[in-house]
């Protein structure tokens, strides 16, 4: 079908991995499977306006963040377009105006690549559906996740909720290296409305990008063992989620976070993304857990910020603990309260 112009809008959330993806092969194929909580409040809303143009050799698009033209986003989007063109042949037939905004402060140190790339992938899929009309609902989400993966690996876990697996795992039905799938097994009610308070420890630009970090896993002395361990941890997660084994959850999730950072510290060249306040917070969480029967725990992504995870029933107590003891370690006292969510929405 030939359509002169139109526009689509999608909101897509960020996600936080419990078993981490760190290390990839060509074409954004993960070295090991991962599982994440989809978030709810940290999200990107993107509108893509498309208008027909003469087919020529190059892509034609412009990008706006919060209404301001952002030419520095263009190289990343151009790379993404190049990677997905084989799957979206209309890309050179249209001019695109991409308007995007985040609910979280930019340069907050919260990566917007998962929410941003998944929202963009969904808008492009809506255009494809409008032009082709034969895309089924299931294929739509799967292909959007496939495309999002080519933008930023972990973005393929942001389309659905509340738990998403990406990467082939022999115990997880339907899992694939090519796209994320909704976690297919029983989850104990203790994980319902699980909370994630994100403590913004350092809002500065990361010294080492995740692309460089992933690449340093090639030939890393502990890589093979790490990939095996991630597979084993994901197997163990199945029983933990089913039984509501919160102590098992804490041990697995915190170990995953520290293992991710230990891979960074043992890369060559080595690097450290945690800051002194990251460690202060971790020690405070451990002390709090020791002095109470709390099931609060932490995880980290590729940065200094700390995600504080806890069951919904502990919300009031943990928020008080955060305000009394942890906010002092946040840059400008900033933190974001989030909760497990259910994925992207069209608007
Ligand atoms: O999706 P990328 O390439 O930005 O890598 C993200 C990797 C981690 O956030 C550190 C872990 C994960 O599984 O999300």
TrEMBL record:
<dbReference type="InterPro" id="IPR053859">
    <property type="entry name" value="MVD-like_N"/>
</dbReference>
<dbReference type="InterPro" id="IPR005935">
    <property type="entry name" value="Mev_decarb"/>
</dbReference>
<dbReference type="InterPro" id="IPR036554">
    <property type="entry name" value="GHMP_kinase_C_sf"/>
</dbReference>
<dbReference type="InterPro" id="IPR041431">
    <property type="entry name" value="Mvd1_C"/>
</dbReference>
<feature type="domain" description="Diphosphomevalonate decarboxylase-like N-terminal">
    <location>
        <begin position="13"/>
        <end position="171"/>
    </location>
</feature>
<keyword id="KW-0547">Nucleotide-binding</keyword>
<keyword id="KW-0456">Lyase</keyword>
<keyword id="KW-0067">ATP-binding</keyword>
<dbReference type="GO" id="GO:0008299">
    <property type="term" value="P:isoprenoid biosynthetic process"/>
</dbReference>
<dbReference type="InterPro" id="IPR020568">
    <property type="entry name" value="Ribosomal_Su5_D2-typ_SF"/>
</dbReference>
<keyword id="KW-0444">Lipid biosynthesis</keyword>
<feature type="domain" description="Mvd1 C-terminal">
    <location>
        <begin position="198"/>
        <end position="327"/>
    </location>
</feature>
<dbReference type="InterPro" id="IPR014721">
    <property type="entry name" value="Ribsml_uS5_D2-typ_fold_subgr"/>
</dbReference>
<dbReference type="GO" id="GO:0005524">
    <property type="term" value="F:ATP binding"/>
</dbReference>
<keyword id="KW-0443">Lipid metabolism</keyword>
<protein>
    <submittedName>
        <fullName>Diphosphomevalonate decarboxylase</fullName>
    </submittedName>
</protein>
<dbReference type="GO" id="GO:0016831">
    <property type="term" value="F:carboxy-lyase activity"/>
</dbReference>
<dbReference type="Pfam" id="PF18376">
    <property type="entry name" value="MDD_C"/>
</dbReference>
<dbReference type="Pfam" id="PF22700">
    <property type="entry name" value="MVD-like_N"/>
</dbReference>
């Amino acid at each position: 079908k030939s359509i002169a112009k139109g526009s689509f809008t999608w909101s897509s959330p960020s996600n936080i991995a419990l078993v981490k993806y760190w290390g990839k092969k060509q074409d954004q194929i993960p070295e090991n499977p991962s599982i994440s909580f989809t978030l709810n409040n940290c999200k990107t809303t993107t509108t893509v306006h498309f208008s027909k143009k003469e087919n020529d050799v190059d892509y034609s698009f412009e990008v706006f963040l919060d209404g301001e033209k952002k030419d520095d986003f263009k190289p990343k989007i151009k790379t993404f377009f190049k990677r997905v063109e084989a799957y979206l042949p209309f890309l050179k037939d249209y001019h695109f105006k991409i308007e995007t905004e985040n609910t979280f402060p930019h340069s907050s140190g919260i990566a917007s690549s998962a929410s941003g790339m998944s929202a963009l992938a969904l808008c492009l899929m809506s255009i494809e559906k409008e032009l082709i009309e034969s895309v089924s609902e299931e294929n739509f989400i799967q292909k959007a996740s496939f495309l999002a993966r080519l933008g930023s690996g972990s973005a393929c876990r942001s389309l659905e909720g509340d738990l998403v697996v990406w990467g082939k795992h022999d115990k997880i039905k339907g899992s694939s290296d090519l796209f994320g799938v909704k976690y297919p097994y029983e989850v104990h009610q203790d994980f319902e409305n699980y909370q994630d308070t994100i403590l913004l420890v350092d809002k500065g630009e990361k010294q080492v990008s995740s692309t460089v970090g992933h690449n340093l896993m090639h030939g890393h002395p502990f890589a093979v063992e790490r990939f095996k361990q991630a597979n084993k941890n994901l197997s163990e997660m199945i029983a933990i989620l089913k039984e509501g084994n919160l102590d098992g959850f804490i041990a697995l999730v915190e170990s995953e976070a520290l293992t991710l950072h230990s891979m960074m510290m043992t890369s060559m060249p080595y690097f450290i993304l945690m800051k002194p306040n990251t460690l202060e917070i971790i020690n405070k969480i451990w002390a709090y857990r020791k002095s109470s029967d709390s099931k609060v725990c932490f995880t980290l992504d590729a940065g200094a910020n700390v995600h504080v995870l806890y069951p919904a029933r502990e919300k009031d107590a943990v928020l008080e603990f955060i305000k009394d003891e942890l906010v002092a370690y946040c840059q400008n006292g900033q933190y974001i309260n989030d909760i497990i969510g259910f994925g992207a929405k069209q608007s």
